[in-house]
Structure formats: C-alpha cells, structure tokens
Design brief:
CATH class of the largest domain: Alpha Beta
Distance between the termini: 71 Å
Structural class: alpha/beta
Shape: elongated
Number of domains: 4
Largest sheet: 7 strands, antiparallel
Length: 640
C-alpha cells in the first residue's frame, strides 16, 4: 500500500474556496506516486505544510507528540478558520496489507477490477482555549474511529529539517536508534501460549550477568568478591535485625527496551562530521522500510534532504533512493538545484503560491521527447527555474551575459524580482516552455520570457542581388513567416516569446544607437582572442579605440545619403567583421556588458535603449518577467 493522495481543507496556507465545509473544494489536492516524490520550491511555498499534514494524520515511528497550534488553521485574526480537515487516501493494498483495515476499507474500480481504497480523515475544531482533533476512517464522509493497531501500521518514518543526527543516534532514554530497533520486526518478542519469550539479546545480557555474578561472588575468593562481601558487612550494620538482604552487581537494564536504549550507532572512533552523521541517520531510518516482514505503511518523509550534504553526497543519496530504495515510498523536500537537476522531472512536484504542480506526464504538456531532452540537459544551473518567480529563456551565451546588464540599466535588476536566466544553448525552447504549461489550463504563475533570434539575413547579405526592391519584399515576407513561427503563442499568458525584429542579438545591437560601443567591444574581443595572455596591452587597446572611431566615421561618410545607412553599418560590424573573423560572441557580450555597467550617464543610456526599435524585444522580455516600465516606449528610432 502507499499514500496515493493528500487533500487539505483550511490547513495553514491551503484554504478553501468558501467557508470550509465538507462540500467545499479542498485547498490542496496532491497526487503521489508509489516510489519517489520530490517537493521542490522556494521558501514558504507550502512544502512543510504538506509534510506536517501527513505527519499530523498518520503519526511517526518515533511516536512524537503532536501539538496543534492556532496557526495550523487557515487565515489570521478574525478571518481564521474554525476548523481544518486533512484527508489521506491509500491505494495499492495487497490482501495481507488490507487485513487489519477491513472494517474501514472501501472499493473502487480500476481497469475493470475492484481495488481496495482507504480514506483517513483528520479534522480539528478550534474551541475556546483548546483544539479538538478527531481521526476517522471509512468509505463514507463520516467514518469510524481508527483503532490503535490499524493506526500503528500507518505511522511514517520522518526526518525533520536540520536534524541533529549525532544526538538522535546516541544511547539514552530518548535514543531514536533504540526506537528504530524496537519498531523493527526482529526486535518484537515472540509469544508462545500467551507468554512472551525471552529475546536473544536478553539471553546475552543474562549470560553476561551470570559471569558478572561469579566475578563478584563473595565466596569466590577474588578481589571483586572481597569488595562485595565488605559492602554487605556494612549493610548488616545499617539494617535492622532480621533484614538479611544483601547487595549484588549486574548490568543495569536487562529487559529488551532498556537494552536497546543503551546501544549506540557509530561509524568510527573519532567524531564524524555533520554530513556523515546525517547519512548514517538516514540509513538507520530506512531500516524500517526494508524487508517483507515490515507490517505497515512504508513511507519515509525527509525534509531538506540536502541538509549538511555536499553536492556529490546528495547525488549518491538520491541515486540510492531512486534505484535501490524501491521497497517503500519517499516524500522529500528540497531547495537544492543539484537535486532538482538530477532527479527525473516526472518525479518532481513544484510548490508555488499555495498550489502544487506535479511534473508527471498526466499533468503537463511535456511529451516523452521533452522528458528525454530535459533529462539530458537540465543541469544545476538550469534547475534554478524551479525556484524562480520569473524565467528568461535565452538561446546563447551573449544573451545570458547581456540581459542582466540591460535589466540593471532599466532599473529592473533580475535578482530583485527573483528572475533566473536559463541558457538553453539552442532554439529548443519548447522543451523548457512545456514545463510551465499544464493540461488543465491552470497556470503555475511563473512568468516566462523566451528571447530568440529571428535569423533572417538583411539585404546587405545578398550582394549579388540585382533587384533590391524585390529582395527586400522577399526578406520582409520571410520575416513575417519566421515571426509567426517563432513567436507562436503557448496558450499560457505567463509564457511569452520575444523575437528579434531582424536577425540576431548582435545585429540588433549593431543596428541601434549603441553601434559605436558595441563595435569597440567586437574589436576588443578580437584582440583578447589573439592575445597570448588573454588581455591585450594598453597600446592594443588604444588601437582598438582609434579604429572604432575611424571606421564608424568612414562608414557614415561613405553611405551618408543611403536610406539603409544603419543597416549597412550593422552588416559591416556583425556580418563582415564579427562573423568572418569568428570573433567570440560571448567575449563581445562580456565587453559590451562591462561598458554598460561602467558608463556614468545611466539616464542617457536608459533613454536610448528604451526607444530603440531593434532592442524593444529585449526590454519587453525583461518587463514581462519583472514589471512594466512606467513610461511608454516610443516606436520611433532614436539615433543619438
């Protein structure tokens, strides 16, 4: 059996659409898989509320006391709900697992067959000065009380965030390791004719105590016996006449529960680090999920799986849970991009804005080819998209380097708005777009801007053309076709595409009022590529500065009367010099971005960039994932 579904009414941030009655739709309805389930999302996105809802309803193997709080009820102040309800639905029962739950089980038809289903509901009423919980199970809405034995079989293994592994594994009255061992079938006493039989460990302790008794035997003649005999002689004087009791020595705690409390789990003689102890603790907890003899629900919940673990340790642990830990069900929470990138996308559940979005094929518009692609190329950097409030999908290094600088320039710094840039490294945007588009039409709420080139070469690229007017018409028609294709609507208003109006990013910048500093960046990048040290000498930098001025002035003079003056210059900068000389786009973008950052007159730059038609798509993309500009962006070309 496994936990198949969780429903919440007015529990913490998951409210209902109305007053919270049983007829209202739940604030959360989460479907879970039998194996691995990963809750991923930013802070305060509802991951802990989901874990706690299950913990409150099912209880834990450690038997921790659940203390209900006012803040468990949705809302605040006078609007706080008077009750909450948590419903856990279990499926996948074997006949043996179903036995203890027969009086509470219902049936449902799956593929023409009757299958067991168990509905367990925890309700809590907020009364003056107290909170009254009620746990019931059954196929109807009322149900009956779940007795102790059945409830015990539903307890979960739970590891809290920032767990103190060393303290949990240390011997003592509160030893978690002792609780784990005591819950394991091996440490359950067998009963014969109603009489519990002595456990093997108890026999070992009894044998040890017999040896200790002989060692301290007052009549044995040994030094230890002399000590005990002397001690008993003192007691004769201390006790009243007729009290012939005498002291003896043994190992304290000869009963099994006491023996287990005195056991300590160690990895090495020297004290291990936090990460190592955390792994040891997780391994100990997973003992309860292994083996066919375990009688109950095999569900382990681990909050912040990555706690105290470096990335490689995280990868090894998640690999084990994915490929070897198949005996149970796992529900994990994480903030780790390393884990987000290494786990199959279909096993992730994105938590965002009081909602959950499973990434399985039943919920997204991702096709099998999308899952395969993302499994290969969704690395830790790209996995930032799971935690972002906005995402810029770009097709290359140049956009990756320049977009943050442009965003700073227009006072929309990406970090302030929680925006991540994902460098796709190609035009395969649909694989990533479909992550955010749901089959049910519900929006995840993450604003996504796809920034891509139009990739239509200008007239200047066709030097052998005899009829320029005809060629221009053909180019414009191609642009329209490409714009319709690349700017295709996704069906989700939060996911939009922003396409360069002409060719590529570099061409658009060369076409704008930034042509001079951009050309300077191109020439400087060329010098850096050819420099042995990677940094050109000062004399080379002066040459670059002089050549920039000379070439721009020469082009402007040469084509001063040409209506395509700026297109000609842009072609020279990008089409001739940059492409033919194979000058690095990444280094060029880095140099141009550095110029934008250090230029002192930001208002002037902001005015230019917001009025440039060739760069409008970049501004619109940034505003889509942040917020609109206060001023209207003119469509007129400013060539200042």
């Amino acid at each position: 059996m496994y936990l198949s579904e969780l429903r919440l009414w007015n529990f913490r941030k998951y409210g209902t659409t109305g007053g919270g009655s049983d007829n209202e739709r739940p604030g959360l309805c989460l479907q879970l898989e039998p194996g691995l389930n990963i809750l991923i999302g930013e802070n305060d996105s509802g991951k802990t509320a989901i874990i706690d809802a299950i913990r409150y309803t099912l209880g834990t193997q450690s038997g921790e006391w659940i203390q209900y709080e006012e803040t468990d009820f949705h809302g605040q102040g006078d609007s706080r709900a008077d009750s909450f309800k948590i419903e856990c639905i279990f499926r996948g029962f074997t006949h043996a697992e179903a036995g203890p739950f027969l009086e509470w089980l219902g049936f449902e038809e799956v593929d023409g067959k009757k299958e067991y289903v168990l509905h367990l509901r925890l309700t809590a009423q907020r009364k003056p000065e107290r909170i009254v919980p009620d746990l019931r199970a059954g196929p109807d809405d009322i149900g009956t009380q779940l007795d102790g034995e059945a409830r015990t079989r539903l307890r979960v293994t739970y590891l809290k965030p920032l767990r103190d592994a060393e303290n949990e594994l240390t011997a003592g009255r509160r030893s978690r390791f002792a609780q784990i061992l005591r819950a394991h079938p091996h440490f359950q006493k067998t009963v014969v004719d109603g009489v519990p039989q002595q456990h093997e460990l108890e026999r070992h302790i009894a044998e040890a105590n017999e040896k200790i008794r002989k060692h301290f035997d007052p009549d044995g003649g040994g030094k230890a016996g002399v000590l005990l005999r002397t001690l008993n002689e003192y007691l004769v004087s201390f006790f009243i006449e007729g009290d012939d009791r005498s002291a003896y020595i043994r190992i304290a705690g000869s009963e099994l529960p006491e023996i287990l409390k005195r056991l300590e789990l160690l990895l090495e003689n020297n004290r291990a680090g936090l990460g190592t102890m955390n792994l040891l603790f997780i391994a100990a907890e997973l003992l309860l999920l292994q083996g066919d003899s375990f009688p109950g629900l095999r569900l382990a919940m681990i909050e912040e799986l990555e706690a105290h673990l470096h990335p490689q340790a995280q990868l090894r642990l998640i690999h084990f849970l994915t490929h070897k830990g198949t005996a149970g069900q796992y529900l994990l929470t994480t903030h780790s991009t390393t884990l987000g990138a290494s786990i199959e996308l279909k096993k992730l559940v994105i938590c965002r804005d009081d909602k959950v979005f499973p990434m399985g094929p039943n919920f997204t518009k991702l096709e099998p080819k999308n899952y395969g692609f993302l499994q290969r190329f969704l690395d830790a950097t790209k996995a930032n998209l799971f935690f972002a409030k906005g995402v810029l999908l770009v097709e290359g290094d140049a956009e990756n380097l320049l977009m943050p600088a442009i965003a700073e320039l227009i006072d929309r710094p990406l970090h302030r708005y929680g925006v991540s840039i994902v460098n796709v490294g190609s035009t395969a945007f649909s694989h990533y777009e479909n992550v955010f588009i749901r089959k049910d039409g519900q929006s995840i709420g993450i604003r996504v801007a796809v920034v891509t080139d139009l990739d239509v070469k200008p007239l200047e690229a066709h030097a052998d053309c005899d009829d320029s007017a005809k060629k221009i018409a053909e180019i414009e028609a191609t642009k329209s076709e490409q714009l319709a294709k690349r700017g295709l609507k996704t069906g989700d208003s939060n996911v939009e595409r922003f396409v360069a109006p002409n060719w590529t990013l570099e061409y658009e910048i060369a076409l704008s009022g930034f042509r001079r500093p951009f050309y300077h960046a191109v020439l400087l990048a060329q010098k850096k590529q050819t420099s042995k040290t990677g940094e050109p000498k000062k004399t080379k930098k002066k040459e670059v500065l002089e050549k920039t001025k000379t070439d721009i002035a020469s082009w402007e003079a040469q084509w001063s009367g040409d209506l395509r003056l700026y297109e000609r210059i842009a072609w020279e900068i990008y089409g001739v010099i940059m492409l033919e000389s194979r000058i690095s786009k990444a280094i060029t973008a880095q140099e141009f971005a550095a110029w934008l950052y250090r230029y002192p007159h930001k208002n002037k730059l902001r005015e230019i960039i917001t009025q440039e038609p060739s760069l409008r798509y970049l501004i619109d993309a940034i505003c889509h994932v942040t917020k609109p500009l206060a001023e209207n962006i003119s469509d007129e070309n400013n060539e200042s």
